[in-house]
Write a structure and sequence with these properties.
Structural class: alpha+beta
Distance between the termini: 128 Å
Strand content: 25-35%
Number of strands: 30
Radius of gyration: 44 Å
Number of helices: 23
Shape: elongated
Helix content: 40-55%
Length: 608
């Protein structure tokens, strides 16, 4: 033979080719014992060995992959018996792969609903039964072997052979405990007030709306209380926001003691709270509201050795099958609360269907959207009324008071007293003040022209208390190059007295800019002369209620005389309002009043 061979265990090695061949039949030799040939052809198994090696490598790669991934992996046979666990699955389940092999999955993989605690269907069992990929139900927790509960998410899929037959299943799941806790936290924050832990306005209104649906479907009865703390601002302004926050927390704890677990207490914003009473008849609701009012009235808040008494005004409205809508219920309760405040505070006011006060408040609320729309679309317009110097030789000439009007959809003019109360009630006055100033300054050359006159602009209490208002004025004077000496600002005596220190600082800031200042409606407040000493004003506008009847009423005459004399001593110029005829003009001239304003002097006219 040309090539030597070695026969080992039915294998032949051809030395110079180094190949392995498997022979299935016997070898043939001649009479001298020499090899002739094989009777059948052998099969080369080199390719098989390569396939075997490849499969081994792939298996190793799969094993390493399953050992390394962050998800837990479980495989089972067609009967749901565990065949494989990766290390993550071992850790979450609390058992080893060796101890789990051959065990039914449900014995080590126990899952329940996190809230109801009801057993959740095994996803592998479902995948095997339905021959499809399935996902785990939401809010599922895994109870590990040591009793630890782990929030999980998973999916399971059947394993099929070449013929498509299901021979097992694989499940992949992972720990979502932190994600679920974060989700719950975000959900809680979206529906609760961070300071008090109570539900917020959005969540409260959702519950009220749900109560309204049940009232209409099942004739259930609810009651809603709208609570507004009295004298909270005193604590906040006197002791600071930290004290105000602590007061709100203590009031929250106090109110929670007075309600049932089925009721809902909410913080609606600021010092306002909402209370939804479940299955509560009107008589019971009124009793609860009065108990809440009394406990708040008796409560004493202590902060750094200062003691404060706090009251609460409560508006109460019933919710039944005849209630109209969520918006109607909320607005009715809000209006009832406002009425309770107007009646002296620390009251409970029950809203009635034909309640005239409530209807008036509702009318004010309807003004809110009209005012907002007017500000956006410039439906407001400016008028002016001349303030005449009675002794021109001794004065700086005529002045003008800038007046505000609203033009409705039909083009008719609406006087301020129709919408100003609503603007004050719903905190829109500072926006109106800014609109007036911005509009006057922007159109100064068109509206005023070359007149070297002083123009008086009314300011609300909300602008006086706005810390950013002075900066706004600086910006407007700089932007439009208006000389401050031509601008006089007016605030009412009532507003000034309500916050004397703030008003004094505000007036001084404006005077430093070069502006002038007038105190409007003087004489209607308490202790007017005492407060006047603290307010460095340039002009004093005597309230029209004293001027209108000064000729016929000796008391009014005496009051105006006293105001005029004291103002003269203090170096403050006086302006008489409501001068409607010559008789009044003659009398105030005799008294020495400096300026006159009223329909007897000049009617308001469009500015420009």
């Amino acid at each position: 033979m040309d090539n030597p061979v070695v026969i080992i265990e039915n294998r032949v090695v051809v030395a110079n080719k180094v190949r392995w061949t498997q022979w299935h039949n016997r070898m043939l030799f001649d009479e001298q014992g020499c090899f002739i040939e094989f009777q059948s052809v052998g099969r080369d198994i080199t390719a098989l060995k390569q396939i075997e090696e490849t499969l081994f490598q792939e298996k190793e790669l799969a094993q390493v992959t399953l050992q390394s991934i962050g998800d837990a992996v479980i495989t089972t046979d067609a009967f749901g018996r565990i065949q494989y666990l990766n290390p993550v699955a071992e850790s979450l389940l609390g058992c080893s792969e060796t101890s789990a092999q051959g065990v039914l999955l449900e014995e080590v993989f126990r899952i329940v609903h996190e809230t109801t605690r009801e057993k959740v269907q095994n996803p592998i069992e479902q995948a095997l039964q339905e021959n499809r990929i399935v996902g785990l139900a939401n809010h599922t927790v895994l109870i590990a072997q040591n009793g630890q509960e782990i929030a999980i998410e998973d999916s399971a899929a059947p394993i099929r052979n070449r013929e498509g037959q299901v021979i097992g299943a694989v499940m992949v799941f992972h720990d979502v405990t932190q994600n679920r806790q974060l989700s719950r936290q975000l959900s809680w924050q979206a529906s609760h007030d961070a300071l008090t832990g109570l539900v917020n306005r959005q969540e409260f209104e959702r519950r009220v709306e749900q109560a309204l649906r049940l009232a209409k479907l099942d004739y259930q009865v609810y009651a809603l209380c709208y609570l507004d703390l009295d004298r909270f601002k005193i604590v906040n302004d006197t002791c600071g926001h930290l004290a105000g926050d602590e007061l709100l927390r203590q009031i929250t704890a106090l109110l929670q003691e007075k309600i049932r677990k089925t009721d809902t207490l909410a913080r609606l914003g600021g010092d306002e709270f909402g209370l939804l009473l479940t299955q509560c008849m009107p008589e019971q609701a009124l009793q609860v509201a009065n108990e809440v009012r009394e406990c708040v009235q008796e409560f004493r808040f202590v902060w750094e050795k200062q003691v404060f008494s706090i009251g609460v005004s409560i508006g109460l409205v019933g919710i039944d099958a005849y209630s109209e809508s969520l918006a109607e219920i909320i607005s009715t309760a809000d209006a009832a609360c406002y009425t309770a405040k107007n009646r002296g505070r620390n009251h409970v006011y029950v809203a009635q269907t034909d309640d005239q006060e409530r209807l008036q408040q509702r009318g004010q609320m309807q003004w809110v959207s009209r005012i907002s729309q007017a500000l956006e679309s410039d439906c407001f317009c400016l008028y002016a009324q001349r303030i005449t110097a009675i002794a021109p030789a001794d004065q700086n000439g005529d002045h003008y008071e800038v007046l505000l009007r609203l033009r409705d959809a039909q083009g008719n003019l609406v006087l301020p007293m129709a919408f100003i109360p609503a603007a004050e009630r719903y905190n829109l006055m500072h926006l109106i003040d800014r609109w007036v100033i911005r509009t006057l300054f922007r159109n100064w050359s068109t509206l005023v022209g070359d007149k070297q006159s002083i123009y008086a602009i009314n300011l609300s209490g909300s602008s006086i208390n706005d810390d950013q208002f002075i900066d706004f004025l600086y910006e407007q004077f700089s932007l439009y190059s208006i000389s401050p000496q031509y601008i006089c600002f007016e605030i009412t005596e009532t507003v000034a007295i309500a916050n004397l220190i703030k008003a004094k600082q505000f007036i001084q800031s404006l005077q430093q800019m070069g502006c002038r200042f007038a105190l409007d409606d003087f004489g209607v407040g308490m202790s007017s002369f005492a407060y006047l000493k603290s307010l460095p004003v340039d002009y004093l506008k005597i309230d029209g209620s004293f001027i209108r009847n000064i000729v016929e009423n000796s008391v009014d005459d005496a009051i105006v005389t006293a105001i005029t004399r004291i103002s003269s001593v203090m170096g403050i110029q006086t302006i008489a309002e409501f001068v409607e005829n010559n008789a009044i003009l003659e009398r105030i001239t005799t008294l020495g009043i400096d300026y006159a304003q009223g329909y007897g002097i000049a009617l308001p006219h469009p500015l420009g």
